Each structure stands twice: as structure tokens, then as C-alpha cells.
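Bug #77: duplicate submission created two jobs. Keeping one. Sequence:
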Amino acid sequence: MPIRVTRLDPPSSPVLAQFLVHLAANGHPYADPAEWTPKVLRELPERRQVFVASDNKTTLGLLVLTSGFLETWGAPTDVLGGNPLLPQDDLAAAIHTALLLEATAWIEREGETGLEILLPMGRANWKRDERMDGFLGHLGFERFYFAMTRDLDPLPECDDSAPEIAPTASATPEELYENYAACVSRGEIELVARQTTNERRAYFDSLLDDTLSHPGSLALFEDDRLLGFTLATAWDETAAHLAWIGIAPEHRRRGNGRRLLCGAMAACRESGIERMSLYTDVSLPAKSIYQRVGFQSAGTLTYRWRHAGLD
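Kept job's structure:
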């Protein structure tokens, strides 16, 4: 079956709405016309590119590109399993390949730096990770941001000597933000490095609101100086997510990161929490600390494609 991909110019909200309603009629979980569709159409930024795959009769797939990120409905995030609209893997792969090739070709023509695919957080099917790696690797994508997890029983052996550990809430918001800003100042975390100063502070304040009361949110002190801290949140009563862990640059390479992480895991376990997860960039040195205390990869959240001429 010949697959034709066209770019909507300008992007058409009626076409998006029609496609989302079509997905909903086929049972797609992302396209409830009563809730999700109006939200999608209202929040899509003006600067976007929309690609539609069809067989000249029926819309088969949709790809929406916005500000360097790929957000899709009925296309690449569901490429290898379970999309009610695309039940056959070979057909799904052909549709997704056509969409991605057209999107990356457009990026090269426009001189953009690259493209990232975000998998739905909390919904990704980790069992298909290897197949997704293979499929997207064929098209030049690489794993970029991934999840790690570990059971909290048993806990790893850790040094429980000084520095002092206390609830993160024992430090002031300004102390915490100053430490956080120092941790991200080197641009090691790409997703944070892209933020403006105002965006970074707003993001941090909202993060504090969601995490300060969690037992896994702990701060590390030495002579009343804040060395670093964690912020944790709850997936449910038995699972915690480590939303942030950071040690100020001048206090690294002394075991402080491991000490703080172990303290957060122990505090969670004492509160009846059985599992902990976190997200990390594949390039971050901290991932080796996570691995040494028992965290294992649980699947890719973001794949990245770079324009070869701009590497």
C-alpha cells in the first residue's frame, strides 16, 4: 500500500480535530473528544509543523512537531504495539517510518538542530524498549533520557556518618534554589539548561510545592552549610519517584551523592514505600552512582535525533 506524507501549511486545527475524533472512535486512549481533543487544540503553540500520512483515501497517522520536540497521536510513540488504529506491526512501522523520514528531512532543510521523541511518562511499555531502540536506531535516533528503578528491600550498604541529613524543608526556599542553581549552572542537564532564568525558578518553585512533605525529600548539611538535597514525590502508597538529587559542584566526589541517595531510600523504606524510580540523561555522570546502589534501567523516555551537519 503506497503511503503519502504531506505537511499541512498552515497547520489545520479542523484536520487535527478530525483525526483525534477518528482515533477516539477506534479506542485510542489519547483522544477522548470530550476532554483531550479540545485541550490539544487549545494548547498547541502557533509555531508547529503537522505531518499527515495517508493512502490518498484514509488518514493513517499524524505527527506534530513543536519547538524541537515530536508529539504524536496515533503515530511513533505507539509504533510497535497495541495502537487500535494500526493493529499490524508491519503497517504501523511503514507509516511511522514515512512520517519520521519526512519530519527529519524537513528539519535538515530548515537547518534546525535536531528532534526529540517523548514517550508518554508512566505509560511507556518497557518490554518493547529493545524493539523501539532497533526501529528508531535505524532512522538515526539514539536513547537520550531514560528511567531507572529499584526495589527498596534490601537497601544498599551506605556510610551513615556525617554530614548531617535532615528534611529538605529544614532549609529555606532561597537556600534550596541557590544550591539547585549551582548544580545546573554547568549545563549538564540539557532539559534544564534550555530554560530561561524565570522559567527555571518557576519550575523549581512548582517542584518544591509537590515534594517538600515527602519522606524521601532530604537535605545534606555540614557545619550548617547546605551541600545538596533530594526531592521526592509519590506514584502511589508503595512507590516513590526521585524528582531531584543534586550536590553543589564544590562538594562532589566525596561520597556525598551516594550518602544522600541512600538516606532518601532508607527514609522511604521506613515509611512503607517499596520501590523508587528516577529519570536521568544518558550522558550524566550521576547514572553510575545510581547503578552502584542497585538502580537498573527501566526503559527509554526520550529518543534524540541530531542533524548530522550540525553535530
